[in-house]
Write a sequence for this structure.
């Protein structure tokens, strides 16, 4: 009976040693990661900011990271559509960068649609506003209109 108790005690102690070894291996593996905070060492202090460096001046107009520049054919169609929208809404839209970006996105979608269809509709609600309220722009574009563009 004594031999069995001793054997059980050795097995329990052996499992405890295995658990400790596994825990040490896990902590060592995780400590190699940069974002890991070792629970036994506490948080690390951040390095002090560099001295004698002037702060960067932020840009007043950030570059648009989402819309790539217009290609030549797209630019011609965008300019023509902005002219049409200006005439339809009676508001000068030529120098509005938001209108130009919305038109460029609409032109790209329309060109994609015209690859499989003969006509497509460009609809830009709330393109501009004046004292009478918001102005919407809608126009139908055909494949032949694209062929006539310079």
């Amino acid at each position: 009976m004594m031999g069995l108790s001793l054997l059980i005690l050795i097995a329990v102690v052996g499992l405890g040693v295995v658990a400790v070894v596994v825990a040490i291996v896990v902590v060592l593996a995780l400590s190699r990661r940069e974002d890991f905070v070792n629970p036994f060492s506490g948080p690390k202090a951040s390095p002090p900011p560099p001295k004698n460096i002037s702060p960067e001046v932020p840009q007043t107009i950030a570059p648009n990271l989402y819309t790539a520049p217009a290609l030549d054919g797209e630019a011609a169609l965008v300019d023509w559509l902005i002219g049409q929208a200006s005439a339809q809404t009676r508001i000068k839209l030529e120098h509005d960068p938001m209108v130009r970006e919305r038109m460029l996105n609409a032109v790209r979608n329309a060109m994609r649609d015209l690859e499989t269809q003969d006509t497509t509709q460009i609809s830009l609600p709330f393109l501009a506003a004046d004292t009478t309220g918001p102005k919407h722009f809608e126009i139908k574009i055909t494949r032949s209109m694209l062929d006539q563009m310079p």
Notes: Residues 12-42 form one domain. Strands lie at 119-130, 133-142. The mean pLDDT is 75.
